Amino acid sequence: GESVGLHLPTLSVQEGDNSIINCAYSNSASDYFIWYKQESGKGPQFIIDIRSNMDKRQGQRVTVLLNKTVKHLSLQIAATQPGDSAVYFCAEKVDSGYALNFGKGTSLLVTP
Amino acid sequence: KAGVTQTPRYLIKTRGQQVTLSCSPISGHRSVSWYQQTPGQGLQFLFEYFSETQRNKGNFPGRFSGRQFSNSRSEMNVSTLELGDSALYLCASSLADRGREQFFGPGTRLTVL
């Protein structure tokens, strides 16, 4: 069936290093993807999005890469900081409405 | 601009009861979506409303229902609560005509005993 999944459930990086969080999707018709960050006790926070007609999009310290050939999405965080510690979710848009299909999430832990 | 607000933040109910959760979207946002978040299933889509109409519905039983008012505020209702309904219920709003970004509220933590 159609699904969005994450390769790694947990990721530990040292402060200052770059982080890469990966996501696989199986629905080739998906045309929009979002990365969210969720801190403990809070709702998901929008980080960055990308449409299927793009391969790369950059934000502040974050870059999202989309490889449609292998249906793979990644989030790169530059110079990771302790405040980046959170669970990161990728999500895809599945139809003409605004329903998002979320992956299970990757927990990012930034160590000093 | 104020973010998405949800009330109440925490709720404890017993099996068989019903519950109503409320969501106020960001001012100007007309689309409101609801999600259930559990450790086992992650974030799952419940339903989406736009201009008081339900446009999308996830794979949840009929005990889960919702509505949207003319001011875009939304409520969801769960009847005949089951233990498995314990979850964080998240509401998200978006500008339907601008893009697809959904902005989430802090959620309502529902515990069913």
- What class would the helix/strand composition of chain B place it in? mainly beta
The helix content of chain A is: under 10%
Oligomer state of the chains in this structure:
heterodimer
Percent range for helical residues of chain B?
under 10%
Binned strand content of chain B: over 45%
Question: Outline of chain B, from the CA principal axes?
Answer: globular
Largest sheet of chain A: 6 strands, mixed
Question: Runs of chain B with pLDDT <50, length 5+?
Answer: none
Uncertain residue ranges of chain A: none
Order of helices and strands of chain A: EEEEEEEEEEE
Biggest chain contact: A-B, 23 and 26 residues
Between the first and last Cα atoms of chain A, what is the distance in angstroms?
Answer: 41 Å
Q: State the total count of DSSP E strands of chain B.
A: 11
Estimate the strand proportion of chain A. over 45%
Q: How many angstroms separate the termini of chain B? A: 37 Å
Architecture overview:
The complex is a heterodimer of chains A (112) and B (113). Chain A is mostly beta strands. Chain A is built from no helices and eleven strands. Chain A has strands spanning 4-6, 10-14, 19-25, 32-38, 45-51, 56-58, 62-67, 72-77, 86-93, 100-102, 106-111. In chain A, the strands form two sheets. In chain A, strands 2, 4, 5, 9, 10 and 11 form a six-stranded mixed β-sheet that branches. Chain A has a five-stranded antiparallel β-sheet with strand order 1-3-8-7-6, with no helix packed on it. In chain A, a hairpin with a 4-residue loop joins strand 7 (62-67) and strand 8. The N and C termini of chain A lie far apart (41 Å). The mean pLDDT of chain A is 88. With 113 residues, chain B is mainly beta. Chain B has no helices and eleven strands. Chain B has strands at residues 5-7, 10-13, 19-24, 31-38, 42-50, 53-57, 64-68, 74-78, 87-94, 103-104, 108-112. In chain B, the strands form two sheets. In chain B, strands 2, 4, 5, 6, 9, 10 and 11 form a seven-stranded mixed β-sheet that branches. A four-stranded antiparallel β-sheet of chain B has the order 1-3-8-7, with no helix packed on it. The radius of gyration of chain B is 13 Å and the shape is globular. The model of chain B has no long low-confidence stretch (mean pLDDT 93). The A-B interface holds A 32, 34, 36, 41-46, 49, 89, 91, 93, 95, 97-105 and B 4, 31, 33, 35, 42-45, 48, 50, 55-56, 58, 90, 92, 94, 96, 99-107.
